[in-house]
Amino acid sequence: MIALASALGACSTSQEAPAPVAEARPQIAPEVLRRYAAVTDEPFPVEAVDPRDLKARNVRQLVDFPSKEPPGTLVVDPYKRFLYLVMEGGKAMRYVVGVGKAGFEFTGEATVARKASWPRWTPTPDMLRRDPERNGRWAAGMPGGDRNPLGARALYLFKDGKDTLYRIHGTTEPWSIGEAVSSGCIRMLNQDVIDLHRRVPTGTKVVVLGSRGSSHAARPNAPEATGSLGNGASSGPTPDDGLDHVGLDSLSRSASEAVEPTTYDEEADDDGL
């Protein structure tokens, strides 16, 4: 018995611990990495999106999206955390969004009344009460920049000529995209909001869905359309395939004329997120 115990003890002490399993890193298509690379021609730096945040659903992509809305319309689905730019032929360009509490406080139709590049941000009274140490210094407003929580661009929604206080904007927290967040309206990856800002003009119709109208039907345009993940090769469209080929001509006339010059909007103010 003693010999047996010794033998077992020898086995247990000589056994090597299993090697740690390295975390599998997703393989991301080169065109997706380029799309979400650092942006160097802006007044402030826009960092590349961490590849770990480029999940398949998080990459902008052409999807099937039958809709009664005309091409050029923006449809926001805060419950599915997607924003759609309606295109012709039952398609839409889909962007993933992060949704804050304010993102559920407005439903219905609105209009993009103003667009801003590197917008100014002012915390709401509630934000000042909730976190005076962090937000108090910006009570009079924070100039646009890479530390500004509105990110690189903002779209301001109005209804019947009045500000809804509903915003579609960039972020300084790209890891929060696709998630429910504590504050704000609709936030996007800076690379995506720059793309959207370029594509839609002021006057664009926006439809914000309520819980009963939340879309469940939108699907990638092809099995590989979400191709941010995988071996980098795709037999179907890449996530932006359709923009290069369908192009802005597939949008409404107003949307096709939407490429407006980018200006640094230091004076434009905002009420919260």
Automatic annotation (TrEMBL):
Keywords: Cell shape, Cell wall biogenesis/degradation, Glycosyltransferase, Hydrolase, Peptidoglycan synthesis, Transferase. One of its GO terms (biological process) is cell wall organization. One of its GO terms (cellular component) is extracellular region. Residues 123-144, 211-273 are annotated as: Disordered. Residues 127-136 have a biased composition (Basic and acidic residues). Pathway: Cell wall biogenesis; peptidoglycan biosynthesis. This is L,D-TPase catalytic domain-containing protein. Pfam families: YkuD. Transmembrane segments: none annotated. InterPro entries: LD-transpeptidase, LD_TPept_cat_dom, Transpep_catalytic_dom. The keyword Hydrolase applies. The active site is at H169, C185. Belongs to the YkuD family. Residues 263-273 have a biased composition (Acidic residues). Residues 72-209 form the L,D-TPase catalytic domain. PROSITE patterns: LD_TPASE. GO terms for molecular function: glycosyltransferase activity; peptidoglycan L,D-transpeptidase activity.
